[in-house]
Amino acid sequence: MGKLSIGCFSSLIGSMTLDFAVKLAEAARKKGHDVDIWLSGNGTMLSKKGQRKFQDYSSLEKPVTDLIKGGLTMVACEACAEARGQHKEDLLEGCDRKSMDWYLASCFKADRVIHIGGE
Amino acid sequence: MKLGVFVNQYTKQNDTLDRLKADKVGIILVQNGVYNATIKEKGVKSSVLDKGTEVYALSEDLQSRGLDPSGIDSKVKVVDYGGLVDLVFNDYEKFIWL
Amino acid sequence: MASKKFLFMVDKLPYKAESSRLALTHAIASQTVDIHLDEDDEMEEPVIAFVGDGVLNCMKGQKALECYGVTSLEMHIKNALLTDIKVLICKEDVERLGLSEDNLIMDAEDIGADMQSEIVPFDDILQQMEKSNHILYF
């Protein structure tokens, strides 16, 4: 089994890019691969707890929380989150916050990297 | 280099895509990129389909846009998320997201 | 020594989106990646390549700090040079956009950097794609 590192820089609402990343991560986990997700820029929205579910908007808190419980590693860029008014107490359960070098180290250790830039 | 290129938009031109050279280029159509697999403007298929030695389209993104996987260009292979994971680990080494 | 090459490619315009800024800050963060790696001899070698309209990030004389209070991309590019990161600018796009070395950030001597930017054909950037272990396309 391999390791996949996914960098996500797109926003939670509007682009459905994070939906893509989460579904890809889910499929990779089902096949037994290790998966890291790095959230940066507007992607840090996904790391915020208390997302209310509406059918008109992407709703990823539940699948992401389940994936983290199942072994997925998800880390948000601390500076990007703080700049958006998201503080440590706002973090989703199981999600961590670190600086950008964490993502580079994750890529260093990964067999495959899919870096999804922002809009 | 075995390069997987995620195309997530329906655009007429992309400088990087036009200039890529690699031993193996796989075009992976996702999100709005899947329109490249089906739309024929004035009867002409998308030039994106000629950019890769292999072309794939994500079935979930075809279906969510009302595009029938059975009606897409014959060059395009339809994969689901599980199939995409296999492509990522078995068929390509590096990836770019355009 | 266990070294891996990362290519940071930028094809987006500056300021309207965060992409090019994050490409530069992530590349510069390569300086401290070793704190997360297991072995002392592991290191990451970053290269930044500006292609397509992304070469416009490299225009000199940017005054974003004065006008909007945000760090300019010029400052980030100079910091990248200061940390000895190879900065490549696509020649075909420089010519297409009517630019020349005179318009672009070719060095950061003012902050003490030895490294200089290089204007190179796209084929050289393709070679960097070949050589790199991973490509981060911003």
- Class based on secondary structure composition and strand pairing of chain C: alpha/beta
**How can the largest sheet of chain C be summarized?**
5 strands, parallel
Number of domains of chain A: 1
Oligomer, anyone? Answer: heterotrimer
Percentage of residues assigned to helices of chain C: 25-40%
If helices are DSSP runs of H or I spanning 4 or more residues, what is the number of helices of chain A?
A: 4
Q: What is the CATH topology classification name of chain A? A: Hypothetical Protein Ychn, Chain: A
- The proportion of strand residues of chain A reads 15-25%
CATH homologous superfamily classification of chain C: DsrEFH-like
CATH class categorisation of chain C = Alpha Beta
Q: Low-confidence stretches of chain A at least 5 residues in length (pLDDT < 50)?
A: none
Q: Give the termini separation of chain C.
A: 28 Å
Number of strands of chain C: 5
Number of domain modules of chain C:
1
Classified in CATH, the superfamily of chain A is: DsrEFH-like
Report the major sheet of chain A: 5 strands, parallel
Description of the molecule:
- The complex is a heterotrimer of chains A (119), B (98) and C (138).
- By secondary structure, chain A is of the alpha/beta class.
- Chain A has a single domain (3-116), classed as Hypothetical Protein Ychn, Chain: A (3-Layer(aba) Sandwich).
- Helix content of chain A is 33%, strand content 21%.
- Chain A is built from four helices and five strands.
- Chain A has helices at 17-30, 61-69, 78-83, 100-109; strands spanning 3-8, 34-39, 73-77, 96-98, 112-116.
- Chain A is globular and about 35 Å long.
- In chain A, 48% of the residues are buried.
- The mean pLDDT of chain A is 95.
- Chain B has 98 residues and is an alpha/beta fold.
- Chain B has a single domain (2-97), classed as 3-Layer(aba) Sandwich (Hypothetical Protein Ychn, Chain: A), CATH 3.40.1260.
- Helices cover 21% and strands 30% of the residues of chain B.
- Chain B has helices at residues 15-19, 59-64, 81-90; strands at residues 2-7, 24-29, 40-41, 44-45, 54-58, 76-79, 94-97.
- In chain B, β5 (54-58), α2 (59-64) and β6 (76-79) form a beta-alpha-beta unit.
- Chain B is globular, with a radius of gyration of 12 Å.
- The longest helix of chain C has 10 residues, at 19-28.
- Chain C has five helices and five strands.
- In chain C, α1 (19-28) links the parallel β1 and β2 (43-50).
- Classes of the chains: A alpha/beta (119), B alpha/beta (98), C alpha/beta (138).
- Chains in contact: A-B, A-C, B-C.
- Chain A binds chain C through residues 7, 9, 40-42, 99-110, 113, 115, 117-119, and chain C through 4, 6, 12, 17-19, 22, 25-26, 29-33, 35-37, 42, 44, 134-138.
